Amino acid sequence: MSKQYCVDCKDFKEHIPKLSAIMSGHLVCDNCHVMNGFCTLIKPNDSNFRKGSSNVLWVEWDENQRGKATHQEPKVGYSLLMSPFNDFFTWQTTPITELIEYNDSVVHFKTENSEYKLYVNKEAIEEFCTKK
């Protein structure tokens, strides 16, 4: 079991792997039994907004507003891209204008038009998404 943010409990709770959840990049909260993504994006001011994915990347833009490079870490000017990393991505933000909080499990940031909190379970990503 690993701890990750549960959007229903609104706290970091123990989560358990269940096959149907893991296959879509989620774990199941051991407290309320809700599936939460390895990466869960919420808007603090919108209780109905929730996006989950198995991983995220940060997109750097060039002067023509075209994707220039992807990164593992956020930075002002980068946009969040949630997996899958193809034409069917889960969500992409506009570029970051302010990083409010950034640590191993939370990235709280503002973009040109919204405020977000991204909860990341790096342990789950490492265990279930990376090839060893």
Give a verbal description of the structure.
It contains 2 helices and 13 strands; from the N terminus they run E-E-H-E-E-E-E-E-E-E-E-E-E-E-H. It has 132 residues and is mainly beta. It has one domain. The strands form 3 sheets. The chain has a 5-stranded antiparallel β-sheet with strand order 6-5-13-12-11, with no helix packed on it. The chain is globular, with a radius of gyration of 15 Å.
Oligomeric composition of the shown chains: single chain
Spans with pLDDT under 50 lasting ≥5 residues? none
Radius of gyration: 15 Å
Give a short account of the largest sheet. 5 strands, antiparallel
Helix and strand composition category: mainly beta
How many strands in all?
13
Number of helices: 2
Q: Order of helices and strands, N to C?
A: EEHEEEEEEEEEEEH
Q: Quote the average pLDDT.
A: 90
What's the N-to-C terminus distance? Answer: 20 Å
Helix share bin:
under 10%
User: Could you say how many structural domains there are in total?
Assistant: 1
Shape: globular
> Per DSSP, what share of the residues sits in E-state strands of 2 or more residues?
over 45%
- The main sheet orders its strands as 6-5-13-12-11
